[in-house]
Amino acid sequence: KLEAKPLPGYVAWKDPNAFIVHSNQTVETKRGLVGSGVVTPINRLFIRNNVNPPPDSIVADRDAWRVEIAGVAGPRTLTLAELKRMGLASVATVLQCSGNGRKYMQDALQPGQKISGTPWTVGAAGCVIWSGVPLKAVVEALGGPVAGAKFVTGTGGEELPAGLKPKDVIVERSVPIATLDTVLLAWEMNGEPIPLAHGGPLRMIVPGYSGVNNIKYVKTVALTEAETDAKIQAASYRMHGVGEKAGPAQPSIWEQPVRSWITAPLEGGAAGRVLVTGVAFGGTNAVARVEVSADGGRTWTDAPFVGPDLGRYAWRLFALPLDLPAGTHVLVSRATDAAGTVQPEDTAPNGGGYSYNGWRGPAVTLRTA
Ligand code: MSS
User: Fold this and answer.
1) Atom 16 in ligand 1: which residue has the minimum CA distance?
2) Which H or E run contains 367?
3) Protein residue closest via CA to atom 8 of ligand 1
4) 214 CA distance to ligand 1 centroid (A)?
5) pLDDT tens digit sequence for 326-347
6) Integer angstrom CA distances of residue 266 from 1, 184, 317, 329, 334
7) How far is the CA of 105 from the centre of ligand 1 (A)?
């Protein structure tokens, strides 16, 4: 059992009862506490930092935040105040750590195998409405991309720890330039200025892409010919075998796969009627369908979606009433995205413990009497 650690100081404003604190930099939302209103309340949203966040002072005067835009015909440094006059859009996305569900992979390893990293179950994820300026509008205002640009590369604004090679610690990620159609430079989340802990004053949002690609306190956005050689891009967040070294030839952790899990009930009780609820999403595709099973995946029933459809990158909540006779029940859910991809029963382990999307891992086993 995990010791109940208190929330780290920089997120002390969050709901203290909503989290499992793995470490100062990894804070998981308790299963079932993402709320019933599609959008995850900010005070219950998970936290993941690869390096210490910058000081609070960077959100003292948000509009003065500066971001360098490079790899365009007319490169420039823009303030947030200037960005706010260049365009406005909103997008709801699932913000999910690449390692969400890693625990299920770790639990399935053979003797001698090891996957290091935070043992997240399902709580390194939430659904957030971001508002900001489309990167495309900014790029067009600055004369368009330079010839040969193939990636959008964003750099985090942390002060890097002394004594380490900058490339080893800098949070800098490249995503394919096709995302230029959807990337947002966001200053609000769920209608509020983005708190420092979630990347304020300005965050690069790549809809449908895994958490790590959504650069907090973004200070540079560059259209580049090559992927950054920062370690976080070149030698981590790659699909590689367990025990193998990660390298730039392996697929990068970019688009999120289709996934769902149950948020209630999580505990047994009296036999009879229960309401099975959960979340389902398709990554870069809309989620089209979700099914629920109370017998560990032998038989399935379609579960209706509830609440507003906030678009293809958001998750949808589902709710299915079920009658559970006295006994042991294994509740699971299985989503299908708009392209017809069905959530698999399991995800083969990979060296970083990334992109788990099996329906078996987050099964809820409960007893009714
Ligand atoms: N950004 C920056 N700048 N830094 C850091 O560290 N991290 C990542 C993203 N971004 C970072 C960034 C990760 S890794 C994640 S998940 C995310 O973020 C989280 O978010 P939040 O807001 O929740 O904390 Mo994994 O894939």
Assistant:
1) 97
2) strand 364-368
3) 212
4) 6
5) 999 999 999 999 999 999 999 9
6) 17, 36, 16, 11, 17
7) 21
